[in-house]
Task: structure prediction
Amino acid sequence: MGVSIRVHKGKIYLDIWHNGKRKWEPLGLTLPGDKTQRAEIMRLAEICKSKREAQILTGEWGMVDPVNSKQTLIEYMNGIAEGKGQNDFTHKALKHLENFPGGNIAIGSITEKWIEDFQDYLQKETSLSKKTIAHYSGAVRYALRKATRDRIIPRNPALGVKGVFVPESDRIYLTAPEVQALANAPIAGELGAEIKQAFLFGCYTGLRISDLKTLAWGDIQRDPLQINKRQEKTKRKAFVPLHSVAWGIIDDKRLHGYTEPVFPALAKSNTNTNEYLKKWAMKAGIEKNIGWHTARHTFAVLSLESGAEIYTLSKLLGHTDVKTTQVYANATDKMKRDAVNALPVIDIAKGKK
Result:
């Protein structure tokens, strides 16, 4: 292992030889013409060299990184947030960390008490929902897990702290007769007709609204007939065989370009399409407060009631954890009734004689 200072075209680098590999790391320093300033810049480069050597040695010996453990949690999470969309929970959690008294804490100084105080702050000083608070707290917990893996801190202080309890929410789904009632009810206009198509298609495929909007004809494989699409939310590939009803919803008997949207009006619309869904449900005589995710819930519940296994459904929905899918098993009363009705019948009357 060795770390040397190199100057190339006036720029200063660290020449690092470690584990049989060499790489140059830029220090962001430029060598000036003034002799006194050059000496000061080289002194800074020597400090950087010493810190980098210490980082490499502590990594080899399984010790805590003496440099990065002094950076703040906000600085560390900003690094994690780079490259993520603004809707990512890391970005959103950072805004609350910046407002939290004590939020500008060194990552190596975080304790169980600090995590409890941050969670209490989110619950008492903000108007966020329990679910949102759990997401923001989870972003901080993820950062601490990563910092532990990166040997920036010796242990994860969040391990001994209970997470924010989120009451199980009611998942609104439609029964098969209700889906039929929607299919029978009209919606006016070009966008309305496409919203109706997309929603019913979602009931038979489980696609999120983000995936329905971006679904292209090239995402539909013809032999066998299935959707082969990278999900917008998870960036994971989802493979969903197409039911004949689903194919009948979109099959217009025409040829389409590979990148052409399946639902073009929906794809380019900036309208609040949930309002269309509510009015459509009223026309169909359905009092449930439906939204786009209702179609996904409907697909999940109807699949389970039709005999699909949890693990298979998890793959169809593109879930990364089967525990996420298990909540649907609690949503359907039919499965509970079927389970009870499947119990063996015994003649209780004989025992009373």
